Amino acid sequence: MSQAIKERVEKYIKGMKDRLSKIPPEIINKHEKIFQLVSQYTEDAEYYLNKGDEATALVDIAYAEGLLDTILIEEGIDPESQISKRVFTAGTFDILHPGHIEFLREASRYGRVYVAVARDKNSERIKGRPPINDENQRLEVIKSIKYVFDAFLGDEKDFLKSVERVKPDIIFLGPDQKVDEKSLLEELSKRGIKDVRIIKFPSRVNKWKHSSTSSIINEIVKRYCEKEES
Length: 230
What we know:
Layout: H1 3-21, H2 25-30, H3 32-50, H4 54-74, E1 86-91, H5 98-108, E2 112-117, H6 120-127, H7 135-143, E3 150-153, H8 159-166, E4 170-173, H9 181-190, E5 197-200, H10 213-229
Parallel strand pairs: 1-2, 1-4, 2-3, 4-5
Helix pairs in contact: 1-3, 1-4, 3-4
């Protein structure tokens, strides 16, 4: 085979080793037997490459990658993400809609997503109305989304306690979350959380008719409440 194919297989193997080094221990322990196969196929690929059998090496490393991607998808981790990264985000997530899914999908591109679900009283204070679904119901729904690695209820008094709990590499903000990024990073640094990157989702997703909770509520009022009044 050509030198180009050999270099491709070398890069493939190197990338697989790098990905394996970033897998969280809890996931490895959970899927121990499959990870043993992934490691074995990766070692076999390297063996056959050194023997000059690039074709067999390519088959072995491709099979190893397929096994690894299957585990990551099952665990709700985007196979293309930087697996070692912890991504923190927070929100009310009241009536779930496609905009929420797009937001969490994008967050998962950067690593494992941890979501702090807003408490009822905090959501009401910020939005000026109580959420339709209570905090425990909203938490249960968010936990079931495949892009979310873990979710928990936020602190009622100190938002940053949730950030401290995760110790993230990345804080992923929604387009409507107005945060003084400089002040946030300074306060986190005081609490021992440094080298945090802040990424902001650029804008609301408007692909669908209802891409916000308010839009859904207004549609319900229009269809049923106003009709009854008339």
